[in-house]
Design goal:
single chain, mainly beta, five-stranded mixed beta sheet, five-stranded antiparallel beta sheet, 1 helix, 34 strands, elongated
Length: 426
């Protein structure tokens, strides 16, 4: 932060409009005894300095020295020292009792608090800019515009000398209808003019918080068990093939209220439950296994565009299994899902309609085998060819339980009489 220091100079016993010319007098500014700058330039009747305040909250004493350069004495009678306390730190909001996206029950005395950090003293020039949908949505588009916010003051902390303090205000939400929104951002500065940080703005989606007026409700996984495999039922799953599934559910307070989703593709496995975790803070998925590669993982809306408060949702996951997944024989793996909200309400479901078995067994199907010769004659069980004649044998590698084609490359060994040839699939 830069500050400007101006010194008014003149002649003893002469009107203040009269001042020395540039070059006739020298002024030197010191900060805590260290020279800041020296100048001989007079602008009107002012000699000016600039000073960059260091990142500190300690006291700084400025001292000025005046020296006539062409005769005369320094007739100054006032004290040329001034002591200030530096404040180069911007105030910052570090906490709020409302999440960025939240929900509240409508009440006439909705208490909102924020915690601000600053040194050396806490700011008092702090206000909230409020938007309440049922009163302020002039264009009825369901979202706040920059000119629809109005100002409301905070109650300040009882002491401003602490490095952290709680600011509070009360809103009346009692006139809202269920589902209405309230949005707010906070602006202001401290006594030194440092602008408040982390307070949000009037830009779309950049408010400090937005909350929906709706009672808290627990997540509910579709009781009709409408979870399904995309593309049809899969009784068998194989390695390195892409699969996708969707699980519909309802969260009354929207995606923003979901703390975590735990999905297990094989909840009854004795070796690897193939768990995928969706995190509500990052709204991203992570995999808790090396036997499954995640191709996609999203929480989507089942009714219109997704917003932070959309209640009708689905978890949609795309994945491939590894060749290293242990084969558990005839075990039919049962997928399960658990959804937990921020209040730790939860719902759990095992999806019996989506049970599956795993097989990595492959074979070359006889019906896929072809034999091509350039000379000789085909017979009922093969062909007759003369020694040295070229021939081509081709086939397809399939999973043995479903006849689905294998997409990975394989080494294939072909034995013909006493000759063995190894090749690869393509």
């Amino acid at each position: 932060m830069q500050i400007d220091v101006s010194v008014e100079v003149g002649f003893e016993g002469v009107n203040n409009d009269q001042a020395p010319r540039s070059g006739d007098v020298q002024a030197t500014l010191f900060a805590n005894g260290v020279t800041v700058d020296t100048t001989t330039t007079v602008s009107g009747n002012l000699m000016n300095f600039s000073y960059v305040v260091p990142m500190t909250d300690e006291e700084i004493t400025f001292t000025l020295d005046i020296l006539p350069l062409f005769g005369g004495d320094n007739a100054t009678t006032i004290d040329l020292s001034r002591t200030f306390r530096a404040d180069s730190l911007s105030p910052m909001i570090i906490d709020s009792n409302i999440e960025k996206y939240d929900h509240k029950s409508p009440v006439p005395n909705q208490v909102i608090t924020i915690d601000i950090y600053d040194r050396p003293v806490l700011p008092t020039d702090i206000v909230a800019m409020i938007w309440q949908e049922w009163k302020d949505d002039d264009d009825e588009d369901g979202s706040p515009d920059a000119d629809e916010f109005w100002e409301k003051s905070f109650n300040y902390p009882s002491t401003l000398d602490a490095v952290q303090g709680t600011y509070s205000l009360i809103l009346d939400d009692s006139g809202a209808e269920e589902g209405d929104l309230v949005a707010a951002y906070v602006i202001g500065s401290d006594a030194a003019g440092n602008i408040l940080e982390q307070g949000g703005s009037n830009l779309e989606g950049d408010q400090l918080f937005t909350y929906q007026l709706k009672v808290d409700g627990a997540p509910v996984i579709d009781a009709g068990n409408n979870a399904e495999w995309i593309g049809g039922q899969n009784v068998w799953l194989h390695p390195r093939l892409g699969y996708e599934l969707t699980i519909p559910f309802m969260e009354p307070n929207g995606i923003s209220d979901i703390k975590q989703i735990n999905f297990q593709l094989a909840s009854n496995s004795n070796y690897d439950k193939l768990e995928i975790v969706w995190n509500g803070t990052s709204q991203q998925c992570s995999v808790v296994t090396t036997n499954l590669d995640l191709d996609s993982c999203d929480v989507l809306s089942t009714s219109g565009p997704l917003t932070q408060f959309s209640p009708d949702l689905e978890l949609r996951i795309g994945f491939t299994l590894s060749w290293n997944l242990p084969d558990e024989g005839d075990l039919r793996h049962t997928p399960s899902i658990e959804i937990i909200d921020r209040a730790l309400n939860s719902d759990y479901l095992e999806m019996q309609n989506m049970r599956w078995k795993y097989s990595a067994d492959v074979y070359v199907k006889p019906d896929d085998m072809t034999l091509e010769i350039q000379s000789g004659a085909y017979s009922s069980d093969g062909a007759w060819v003369s020694p040295g004649s070229p021939l081509t044998i081709s086939g397809k590698v399939r999973y043995s339980t479903t006849d689905v084609l294998v997409e990975d490359d394989f080494y294939v060994e072909i034995s013909l009489s006493s000759m063995t040839v190894t090749t690869t699939t393509s």
